[in-house]
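Before relying on records like the one below, remember that each one covers exactly one chain. Contacts with other chains, cofactors or solvent are not represented anywhere in the record.
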Amino acid sequence: MTLAKRPLGSTGIDVSSLGLGTVKFGRNQEVKYPTGFSLPVDRAIESLLDLARESGINLLDTAPAYGSSEQRIGRLLRDRDQWVICTKVGEEFTTGKSFFDFSAEHTRRSVERSLRDMKTDYLDIVLIHSDGEDLKILEQTDCLATLLKMQEKGQIRAIGMSTKTLEGGLRAVETLDLVM
């Protein structure tokens, strides 16, 4: 079975109807799973990526808040141009705790780090990883303006937001390429 690709709105990006989330590639602390788990070895991730690709999955979802996920993707992913990589900005996970920063400087550094860690010169999708204050993030921070500048430079193909509120989702859909 091979999954068909579908257009992602008007972004010009075609994605499989099923994506592969990668939080378990790099983070096993403070995650909302009923039981604990160990991180997989590299060979297991390589096998999963191969199986996903053979099945027609081309969408990878990751984030800096997913621990070492982005570094492992950078090390293990082959045929980058065959994948749609979706990452996020805003949330970080260090020393066992999450924190949020939507400043222009942090947003820029986060995207640059994701590019470096995943060994790519562009990101297909960057989502703002909301802390629950969707409208405040969109209206009172420089996060979106920073992402738009990076999109103009060709570092980002599409910008969206992983929202937590109805109001935020409705506002985001007015101005962004996609909303999760």
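The two ends are 26 Å apart (CA to CA).
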